[in-house]
Amino acid sequence: MCTVCGCAEGNTRVEGQAHEHEHEHDHEHHHHDHPHSHSDAPAATVVHHHYHFKHKGDVHIHYHVSGAHAHDHGHHHDHDHSHTHEHGHEHSHGERFAPEQQGEDLHYGQGPAHAHAPGMSQHKMVQIEQDILGKNNHIAEHNRAHFQADQQLVLNLVSSPGSGKTTLLTETVRRLAGQKPVAVIEGDQQTANDADRIRATGVPAIQINTGKGCHLDAAMVDTAYHRLGLDQGGVLFIENVGNLVCPASFDLGEAHKVAILSVTEGEDKPLKYPDMFAAADLVLINKTDLLPHLDFDLPRCIESARQVNPNIEVICLSATTGEGMERWLTWIEQKGAALCA
């Protein structure tokens, strides 16, 4: 996850106006000095979140990870639409973790961290992951309390790129609009293209650009949700960044994760990315109109999903032809009713 891919070093931009606080600055250039001294800090890793609110509501989130061997950090941020960071770090390389070998295959996911990063011990990776997820989960619980108080059914849509997630979501909100309040939070590394597609249906949407980040986190969703102003008793769809790895670990406060898998992908996808399908309550198998043209074993795909998660529900549909859409909308209606019961 993020202790390996390094996505936490990215910058995040959320559409809308900053409601928390703003720095006094001119609109072209502002300057931040953040001295951090950890001389008395415990050996456990510390993750720092710095939120810089700029003009036009942009939110830039920086994560700085420090540990037992990195005590005094001078962080100097010079922002004029670019970022320069001067860090004094002592690097702890830790023990090397050799992969488990089977024949010529290499397996790096066998240690306590279930991942590998050059120069970082398994113990250190576990510490970093626990700190990042602990902070995220705290905010996720805050989000969940807000959603429940507002009687919002919040669905976290996850998939690999190209699954047809945005097309499916656009058709879904088009059918729901007018029946109940509906809104969308869109997650992508760059562009507002998907949010623009949603807004074209008349449904409010807000775009989160994660920069180098490969997933949404609870803090991003919290910021976006408070800017949407969704009426009570509605449905909030969160379209996560196209990725079947990191989003599995990050609770956003949602009621359900919904994994979308298209028939143009392999039927063994749930076995290749088990964490995501284990975390999901529903898998939507999309683009079924293409089945006559593909060598895709649908029963095997369903079997693979239930091998990972015996309780997962499965709906086969096509956002293009509308086949199976009523089953999907009925599922949403049932989950919304259960939330308000």
UniProtKB/TrEMBL annotation:
Keyword GTP-binding recorded: yes
The keyword RNA-binding belongs to this UniProt entry's keyword annotation: no
Cross-referenced InterPro entries: CobW/HypB/UreG_nucleotide-bd, Hyd_mat_HypB, P-loop_NTPase
One matching Pfam family: cobW
SUPFAM superfamilies hit by this protein: P-loop containing nucleoside triphosphate hydrolases (SSF52540)
Protein keywords: GTP-binding, Hydrolase, Metal-binding, Nickel, Nucleotide-binding, Zinc
Biased composition regions of type Basic and acidic residues, renumbered to the chain: 17-27
Region named Disordered: 17-41, 69-98
Annotated family: Belongs to the SIMIBI class G3E GTPase family. HypB/HupM subfamily.
The protein's name: Hydrogenase maturation factor HypB
Originating organism: Ferrimonas gelatinilytica
